[in-house]
Structures are given as C-alpha cells and as structure tokens.
Amino acid sequence: MMSDLSGGRTDDDKPLISILINHNVLEVIFSYLDLRDLGNCATVCRSWKHFLDDENSDFWRSHCIRKLPEEALKSDLMSSLPTYKMKLRAYYHSWNPNDCSRNVYIKPNGFTLHRNPVAQSTDAARGKYGFRQGRHTWEVIWEGPLGTVAVVGISTKEAALQCHGYVALLGSDDQSWGWNLVENHLLHNGDVQGSYPLLNNAPKYQVGERIRVILDCDENTLSFEKNYEFLGVAFRGLPDKKLYPTVSAVYGNTEVSMVYLGPPLDG
Hints:
Layout: H1 14-30, H2 35-41, H3 46-53, H4 58-67, H5 70-74, H6 84-92, E1 95-100, E2 104-106, E3 112-115, E4 121-127, E5 135-142, E6 150-155, E7 162-164, E8 176-180, E9 185-188, E10 191-195, E11 210-216, E12 221-226, E13 229-235, E14 244-249, E15 255-262
Antiparallel strand pairs: 1-4, 2-3, 3-15, 4-7, 4-14, 5-11, 5-15, 6-8, 6-14, 8-9, 9-10, 11-12, 12-13
Helix pairs in contact: 4-6
C-alpha cells in the first residue's frame, strides 16, 4: 500500500480497501444462503461471480466446514470431489432422511444409509434432489453384504420405498429403474429387462467398489460405470419426470453411501 508522509492512506489505497471490505461483507451475507441462492447470486454481477467462482476459497472452505458433519469431512467418501464447493453440493444432494423406508436411517455423516435387521422386508431410500434436466452423476458404494437382492438406480416420487418379503423393490413398478448387483439384471416395471453389463461372464459387484450412476435427462438415458469403466447405456426412454437417486436393500445392517458428483466428465 502507498502512504503519504503523515502515515495516512492515500487515495490510491481506497479501491483496495473497498474491495477488502466488500469481500468481508459478501462472506457474511453469503454464509446464510444455500447453494441454489448462491448460484443465483453468481449471476447478479461480475464481481459476485468472481468471488464465488473460486471453489476452494476460504469462503467455500468455511461454508463447507460449518455445514458438513466432521465425520464426513474426515472420511474418504468424498475423495472424488476436489473442491470445497463440490463437497458442499454433494452434502445437499445426499440421502433424504424424510424419504426412505421406516427401516432405514441416515448415519450422522449424512451420506450413508443403514438398513435395520428387519425380517421379511425390502427397504429403499431416495436422494434429496430429483433431476428433470441436464446430466448428473453420483457414486454409490455398498459398504455391507448385498444379501439376495441389492438394487441401484433411480425412481420417481411415486415409487414405493418399502414392501413385504425379500424382492427387487427398485424396478418392481413403472416408476423405478434399477440394476440388481447380485444377479447383474436390469429391472423395470416388475420385469427383468436383460443382463447387464453385456459381457460374457461379467464380474459381480464386490463390496466397497464404487459404482457411478449417470443420468442424462437430455437424452433420457441411465448408464453405469464400475471401477471407472463405462458399462453402456442401461435404460432408454426415461420419462419427463423428476428422477431421484435410489437404492433398495434386504440385508440387515447393510450400509450404502451415495455421493453426488455433478455433471459427468466426457471422455
């Protein structure tokens, strides 16, 4: 900074001081807003956009630390998310504790569901956000035994989240689409839609592997990756409805984590 001989600040300092004050004010105001509102703020002016574009800034770091449970920040669940803003967004898109079976609860980290050991029941959970436009990707990690049926996919709000018996609940009606990891079958409307992936002797899912679910609302398709290998399009002709990340499970005390990644990276 430049100073005059009396030790006071010159007029050259004023723009920089103004910027610092404005940034401090913005940090305070923006700290009260959720991600959707912050996204709207980024469209107001170039200065606000520049402030919010740095996804690893002190602002996003403090916002992330304030919102996310410490257990989540210390785990390796979000190892695929390189910025604080992405971690925060994933938390907002995690499992919905108010949209799951009564036999399921969401653990304190916010990203992992736990199915209680209830006999003769199949139980499901949906994410907080549904998608009707754009392209979206999230990871699913099954952290306990699969049991006889373990299904990953999507559903509308109309799909059931609990039923009697041990069945493929996700994919049992026309409001849900799923991949049964135990049998490598695609399921929709109560029918097996074929084997998946289309490989000879396709390997079965191993507990702890990361599955990427890719929902393309522009092309109305659902695809999967496993171990970063694209497995092909699983479903086409998806409806023009909000579609939510969903899983259904039958095994007692099994746990399933879901981490939203954002738009898929092509290539």
